[in-house]
UniProtKB/TrEMBL annotation, chain A:
It comes from the Archaea. Residues 81-284 form the ABC transmembrane type-1 domain. This is Sugar ABC transporter permease. It is a multi-pass membrane protein. PROSITE patterns: ABC_TM1 (PS50928). Gene3D superfamilies: MetI-like. Keywords: Membrane, Transmembrane, Transmembrane helix, Transport.
TrEMBL record, chain B:
GO terms for cellular component: ATP-binding cassette (ABC) transporter complex, substrate-binding subunit-containing. Pfam families: ABC_tran, OB_MalK. The lineage of its organism: Archaea, Methanobacteriati, Methanobacteriota, Stenosarchaea group, Halobacteria. SMART domains: AAA (SM00382). It comes from the Archaea. Its main location: membrane. It comes from Halogeometricum pallidum JCM 14848. This is ABC-type D-xylose/L-arabinose transporter. Keywords: ATP-binding, Cell membrane, Membrane, Nucleotide-binding, Translocase, Transport. It is found in: Cell membrane.
Amino acid sequence: MSTDTEGLSVSRVALYAVLVAMALFYLAPLETGLMTAIKTQDAFFSSTPFVPPFGDGFTLQPWYEAWAQMQGPLTDFSGALYNSAFVAIPATVLSGLIGSVAAYGLTNLNWRGQAGVLMLFVAGMFVPYQSVLVPLTRFWTIVGLQNYLAGVPFLAQRVGLIELIVTHTAYGIPICTILFRSYYASFDQSMLEAARIDGATFTRIYQRIIFPLSKPMFAVVLIYQFTQVWNDFLFALVLVSSPTSEVATIALNKLQGSMVQQYNVQMAAAFVAALPTLLVYVLFGDQFAEGVAGET
Amino acid sequence: MAELTLDHITKVYDDDGSDIVAVDDVSIDIADGEFLVLVGPSGCGKSTTLRMIAGLETASSGDIRLGGDVVTGRPPRDRDIAMVFQSYALYPHMTVRQNMSFGLEESTDMSDGEIDSVVTDTAEMLSIAALLDRKPGELSGGQQQRVALGRAIVRDPKVFLMDEPLSNLDAKLRSQMRTELQRLQEDLGVTTVYVTHDQTEAMTMGDRIAILNDGELQQVATPLEAYHQPANLFVAGFIGEPSMNFFEMEAREDRLSGDQFDYPISQETREAVGDATNVTLGIRPEDVQLVEEGSGEHDFGTVVDVVEPMGNENNVYLSFETDGAAEFVATIDGMRSLDAGQPVVARIPEDAIHLFDTDTGETLKNRSLAELEETEPRF
């Protein structure tokens, strides 16, 4: 018996060693980034990047600076973080809602040509961002959104951001639809039939049964879409031209452009830019796990 | 409350170009307040028939009339029906109260107060009043079943449709709910169509039973009629547990000749057989008598193969040859003990036999009901 336990413990030790090594490997960049962000520029140049700062080397100044560059005062409604939120929240909610309704129509209602439409949605998931850049800019030029928004200065100043909202919503619909569809397909069909017999119309069934039961999948979709939209750089670079409308990813990139590379500020700014997505995970984490597990 | 008429309804599915007939020209008249059981093996079209009545499937042809109105083309919500599903189909995110109120909220103009009082009354009737604020996930199967029933009852529909509502319950609870459902239906007096594959449920619950096979209606009759006077071979074999014994025979001048034995027949029986040459002889297990010594022409020497004690009775599987596989079964009193391998004489009385045309399945002769008439005046 003793040999048995020994053999087990040796393999266990090996397992933990590998796990610790992998954890270190994956956490090292994060730790290095964090350490860099709390060092003075001098301390950064005089020490190894992942070593914590000592004495005078420690400073929170990069964070203040990063915040000022990325957002400025919270009352300033044209900061980059604010702009990112202005795009990401509506785009996420809209693609989630539209995806959910579309999935309901594609799963629980019977109509001709359903399979063909579903194929279009699936195909939509595989269109790379790069391939649509030129058509997309042409499209928005032809639409000329600024002409329609001229009467509302608040929106007119943010034409680029509104274009981003619509673009991201459209781009997010296919994946949201597919996610919701697989979730709805697992619903008990007789429950929906019972609702039909109970006198509910298709829209009422969506409102009172499908939508309330969709919460876990909404968490999945919201987290996924929010991260996608928040982290997008390419569309923002192409569609947003006004400096007051730049989003977090663009602002972060601009920090790098100065004459002197302020690594500590860049790192702090990267953390500031990543914080909202982290916050979304924390807020919807429980529901997310439920949705991924596919519980109904 | 209303009478329900199925008028030549047919359902054809298109399966990759080839047509599959799920329900074939079924016509049934169901009287106001009647409890009709649709029974048959799985895939016989009984659920499809029920779903057509509900409006969840559209009939390919034929009409469904409810209280004189043709409802064939109407969506489920315009039919004034309520349905209970095998899976209960409760709304998991709603409390029992909300589950039961849902239908009234969606289909009537009743005020919240009225709905609440109806729901509370019904819950009391079903003894689930204490569960009103719980969610379905917190309830046992039997309790969920009651909620599903309650949800149907509060609607006060013209017809209840029940799709194998008891098959997810354990055996004991099932027989308890069977009785309760029957009593409930009698109290409410609502026309009910009940689908099951379980012939015991069909026999015990229905005012009448409709037996379906391969989408075709075999017989609509009271349980006792279906048991004693089956319309064909299928019904005879399907109704009754253990099922009727069948022997394939050839009709001769004065007897039926089979592989195992010859069975002499009277003039009357001979007339019933008519021109049929291939005949199936049927006898219910309880009509086979086991006697000590054979004396008559309808007595046959057999050997006991297996005995299944049921307590109140024994099912005795018999073989015509020693060491042969069991060929038929006799039901005898539970106190009478027999051992495997023991030779016994099986008496197959002529007035208890059923005869069917083997080729068409049609009944040629049903058992005589002379002795039954004394106890069952309906026959």
